[in-house]
Amino acid sequence: MRPVYPFSAIVGQDEMKRALLVACVEPRIGGVMVFGDRGTGKSTAVRALAQLLPPLKATADCPWHCNPVDDPARCPHCSTHRVPGTRVKAVDFAAPVVDLPLGATEDRVVGALDLERALTRGEKAFEPGLLARADRGFLYIDEVNLLEDHLVDVLLDVAASGENIVEREGLSVRHPARFVLVGSGNPEEGELRPQLLDRFGLSVDVRTPQDIPSRIEVIRRRDAFDRDPKAFLANWQAADAALRNKIIKARKRIDALEPDQDILELISRLCLAIGSDGLRGELTLLRAARALAALDGAKTITATHVREAAPMALRHRLRRNPLDDTGSGARIERALADVMG
Amino acid sequence: MAGADDPARRWQQAVLAARLFGLDPAGLGGVVVRAGPGPVGDLWLEELLDSLAPGAPVRRIPVGTSDERLLGGLDLTATLAGGRPVLDRGILAALDGGVALLPLAERLPAGTAARVAGVMDTGMVQLERDGFTARHPTRLGLVLFDEGQESDEAVPEALRQRAAFWIDLDGIALADCLADVPEPDGHGRLPTGDVAGELVEALVHGAVALGVDALTAPLLALRAARAHAALRGSKLVAPVDVATAAGLVLAPRATRIPELPEPEPEAEPPPPEPPPDTDNASDEPPPDTTPPEQDQTLPEELVLEAVAAALPPALLEALRKGARVRARQEPQSSGGGARQAASMRGRPIGARPGHLRSGARIALLETLRAAAPWQALRQRTAPLTDTHAINAASAVRARIQVRPSDIQLRRYARRAESTVIFAVDASGSQAFHRLAEVKGAVELVLADAYAARTQVALIAFRGSAAEMLVPPTRALVRARTLLGALPGGGPTPLAAGLEAARLLAHAEKAKGRSVLVMVLTDGKANIALDGAPGRAQAGADALAAAARLRLAGVTSVLVDSGRFASTEARELALAMGARHVPLPNPRAGTVQMLVTDGLAQAKASAGGPVRSGGGLR
Lengths: 341, 617
What we know:
The complex is a heterodimer. By secondary structure, chain A is of the alpha/beta class. Chain A has helices spanning 14-25, 42-52, 78-81, 106-110, 115-121, 130-133, 149-161, 194-197, 212-227, 229-253, 261-274, 280-296, 303-314, 328-340; strands at residues 32-36, 56-59, 90-93, 97-99, 112-113, 126-127, 138-141, 163-168, 171-176, 180-185, 202-206. Chain A has a five-stranded parallel sheet with strand order 4-7-10-1-11, sandwiched between helices. Chain B folds into four domains: 1-174, Rossmann fold (3-Layer(aba) Sandwich), CATH 3.40.50; 192-257 and 296-322, Helicase, Ruva Protein, domain 3 (Orthogonal Bundle), CATH 1.10.8.80; 352-410, no CATH class; 418-606, von Willebrand factor, type A domain (Rossmann fold, 3-Layer(aba) Sandwich), CATH 3.40.50.410. In chain B, 38% of the residues lie in helices and 15% in strands. Chain B is built from 22 helices and 17 strands. In chain B, strand 15 (514-521), helix 20 (535-551) and strand 16 form a beta-alpha-beta unit. The chains are: A alpha/beta, B alpha/beta. Chains A and B meet through helix 4, strand 5, helix 5, helix 7 and helix 9 of A and helix 4, strand 3, helix 6, strand 6 and strand 7 of B.
């Protein structure tokens, strides 16, 4: 296994890191889309999540890594194997971060007939695909705008429903596939389909750091990592562990955080001001603000959390105006200033 | 020292790049080699192959290599023959520790480029195809041969930016390659120690001074410096290594001229330079092409000087003129899977599951591939009477049973694409106003580009020549960046503008797109095609160019932006076969409407209904 660059060692790119942490704490956020130039650490950050995510509890012997507290009916294994009333044996399970390589075929993404068993033994068995492997974790697609349209549609449907259904020639499988979809893309390579962008919960823009000290630091760290990954990882282990604890604590706290009326109104007014249609924007903004509050260890969700969450939750929901050169970030800022003063 | 344009020196630099790359192909990513066909390119490749570690795998990957070959997948023949799944590992996975040679890299589809880039980033081929899941460690470097003749062909940026070296062999004659480039003393080992802080900083500062934004550039330069130290047989990276690396890696990426610090012979403290060659001082390696500097220059200045010496004269010239230097753009890489490939005429672009119906064409191999895993099952469970079996073999038991659910349909690229070429008169006092409105129109057209599958290009003509400001693109963001600095003012080389539009129109038509040329001018030419001033010749040249545009069968609209509708403009429109629209104050919205009308006409004249391939929904 090749060593992976640690999350905490990424220089700058705070908004991207915060957005990913939000998704770690609140998986229902609806996915994260990261736009940015090459070499800005998009892929590095997502792949680093694998080391950062706290381990999960899974039902022993369940190939789908079901959460022991979940309804067993959802899972093809547990629904038949779990005896009601008995205690479930739980095991530790590393939260998956699955890379969906470009060029993956549909059968490997959704799962298909087990090739080996079918050919050598003539047995009909289902071999789970990447969607199953990503259950309870993250599914990452680099250069999402280059992925075949029909695959992207499948992914978005499953991500939204949390369930993957495969029906083929007597092979009928339905299994849980709850994952955070993370896409990255380079705007220079062409725009993303608008209907696709809408379906991501958060969207962040990353740029190459412009100040010289940060740029030097990026090169230094990358160089150090390339030369001696083990030593580098050891140096950053403590920082990653601290971050992991923050995620664990935030996950425990998040359910207790209820927005008060003022915050709900603020969120509504913000969404109105930028003209985002539907409730999805408001819901995402609320969930992101709540996750940020949980990460910060705050007792309540405050306007500060809403302010921080607004750009990532609303940026891609602005009505497009091609003649307005103002960047989406600036337009959100304007709306924030108007609404919050 | 000979200048950066001296062919013999350029050859030496190219050979040096090959040797550095040979030491660390995966770390340095690749070499983009600009070369026409000929012995010089072959000679360079020989140098490269010589410098690779013995036994390193090398393979040529032709353009159009399918994903199955590139990444691996089900080996259909072996699987059917053996009755068990057999994996074909693919080309890339076989190249671990070696080098892939990509001829005609400028024609590499963006999708393929992204797959290769993904392999380079993760250092492995992640195979998720045809029922196989596999991880093959694959650390490799690329040699990208850029043989593009057309201005709109370029090596995909995704790979170009990952390649440390961009070398240009054009204009180097065989005679220039005769002088021996001193051989290094065997392969050195890459130094793994820390590089002095100043040296790293110097590279970062140097990149910023040259207007190189991407941080991959200084990182690759740092690795090149390590390789250079190794080539010298040193265990420490010295300023000379960093300077050489900067000249090779950063200089070709420059987008602006660095401000060279005045040489200050005194008062500068010497850098805490690591003593070179402490380890094998007795065994002095042969000097390489750049003599080690023994002076007191600060590393940062050293880098800038090295870069200045290495800047290609053509690049310098362009930078001086203030023209935006940009890497030649990729030929339209916008859009997702289907759209991506949809830019090419009627070419098959892979297969996907579907139902056979009229107009759809079956992809035989892919269908068999989909059917293969089921064979054992079907042989057992489906007797001859099975009504589902398409091949319903009469008396003979079917060897291979194919069912409707296996059917894969060939997808063809769409032909519904169109390109709008704006040719804009940027001369004289009106230029600024006109250009601003055109910019608005370009953005309006691009805003609809996704749905309408329209690309936009912009050619501006002024002074003595025409310049392609925006190569055909559908990306609003990119167009906006390119439109940032529009020059204006000067005389009117109308003929040159029309010629440029015609050439681009021709190239776009060759790709199967319908083309609309929008000319915005007052028709008053005063620069002839050869660049000479004079109204009479300029007018005649413009009319001739207009006639050629019509002969090329290009649909065009002439927006007469003069204050009064002019005879010249009317005659020009007549010669072009263009619609003549007097519009003293062109507005973005009006221009957009003209484009919509014109495109409909262009598509109609392209002949035949727009056809979309079977299976492409």
